Amino acid sequence: MSPPVRVRTATAADLDAIVDRWRELIDAHAALEPVLYAVEAHAASSYRAFVRRQLDAHRGLVLVADRGDARGVGYLMGGVGRRAPVYTVREVGMVFDLAVRPDLRGQGVGSALVDVAVERFAGWGLDWVQVNFAPGNALAAPFWQARGFTTLLSEAYRPIR
Question: How many alpha carbons fall within 13 Å on the CB side of residue 161?
C-alpha cells in the first residue's frame, strides 16, 4: 500500500523542491510550445523569488505535498484574482501552478493539493476557483474536468513576426 499524501502550507525550506517541480512543469509546457515557453537563464531564481513573495502574501497560497518520507513531491500555488468591477463575482481563487513529480502522477497527489486549495479558497469567502491549462496537455484537461472544472474561455496565440 502506498503511503498517504500529506498536504501542508509551504515554508522557505520547501523552495528547492518547489523550483524542481516547476522546472518539470516548464519542460512539459516547452514540449507543447517551445517558443512561448522558452525561459530566460535566470528563470529558476526569478521563480524562486516569486514563490517566496507568495509565501508572505496576504491570501497567497503555496501548498506542498509529502508522501511518506518524500517531501515536496507536488505543489500548488495560487491566490486571489480580482475581476473587472463590472462583474458581480469580483474575486475568485486562482490556481497559478500545480505540479506533481512525474513518477507519482495519477496517484492522488494533485487531487489532494486541489482539495486543500479549494478548502482554503472557500475559507476566504470565495465562491469560484479558476485554473488555466494547456489544451495540448493530455493529463491536464481530464484532471481538471474530473474535479468539476468547466472550460469557459480559451486563450489563443498567433506569432506576428
Answer: 0
- Strand pairing class (61-67; 5-9): antiparallel
Q: Is the pTM of this model over 0.90?
A: yes
Domain coordinates in residue numbering, the chain: 5-146
Instruction: Judge: domain 5-146, CATH 3.10.20.310.
Output: no
Nearest residue to 76 via CA among 125, 28, 13, 131: 131
Q: Three cell numbers at 89?
A: 463575482
CA quadruple 141, 52, 55, 74: dihedral sign:
positive
Least confident of 34-43, 85-94, 148-157: 148-157
pLDDT at residue 137 in the model: 86
The cell for 57 is 502574501
The yes-or-no verdict on residue 10 having pLDDT over 80 is yes
Q: Which runs of E-coded beta strand occur in 60-108?
A: 61-67, 70-82, 91-100
